[in-house]
């Protein structure tokens, strides 16, 4: 895990509980921030970062204003996505990979808490050629993306590059907001990160179902959502005294938690903004100072498109609480993300190949190497 010996205690940031005086059908009161083109660590950056941290601790999410160029790229990405999802199902099903979890996922194939979700999805992972050493060495989930067209590829890759730049700057600002003396303490964790994305199409609600996606937290690091004007997204902010599972542990899945309780806030779509919230790795890194945000999607009267971008750690990164050196709670990110995909898609051709070829054995070797490097770099006993 990246960082330095001068990291200030994360506990200096005091969480605040949300106001539940009007909790029924409450619309999330999200602040919208404008992030600078370059983060330098000056007083304005520190103030902005602290405001972002406080917003996460209060509402669980904040918004970021898009520049005109980013907004244009988002619309081109949506346009290319609509063209793809309008194709016949038989054609869409051909865009899958047995090497990576990239490609098409049909409606009902994805389960949350054992119940089928309505969304159909195109997943994008790091696009690696077959000649890449990681692919040749059999790293699980590594390989080419089965792009459905050059237009789709160009539009999505351009937009994801822009989201990647935003993700790096957000990590720098959050580092400042948490009082970390190293501006790049969080960003360095995501160097050559296993960034990936999911383009989602939700059908209109029907008499059979209004379920889009069941309640869950996201297993990764930093989540950036682009949504159209259809709506349907709800979030659950931090609540005093409420148990939040450590979703990275097999025994503590957050899927389906609090699904039918009242304390959910509707996220009203705002044109030319992104919604940003922490995933499970932030909860682990900060030892619970920042909680992974539960969210779910209900179907509405119209078709809904969204793009979920995950700004992730390096595949070989060890994630451990910054300020709890004695904690035995850590994950090897590559093992973690692979297990999450295997849990979500046990019958997918990719999962079957990983298991058939014993690719998890390769992952054990990668994890052992990462733990050894982590222990040497941080001068701690290899546990």
From TrEMBL:
Pfam families: 2OG-FeII_Oxy, DIOX_N. The keyword Metal-binding applies. Residues 193-313 form the Fe2OG dioxygenase domain. It comes from the Eukaryota. GO terms for molecular function: metal ion binding; oxidoreductase activity. The keyword Iron applies. Keywords: Iron, Metal-binding, Oxidoreductase. Belongs to the iron/ascorbate-dependent oxidoreductase family. This is Fe2OG dioxygenase domain-containing protein. It comes from Adineta ricciae (Rotifer).
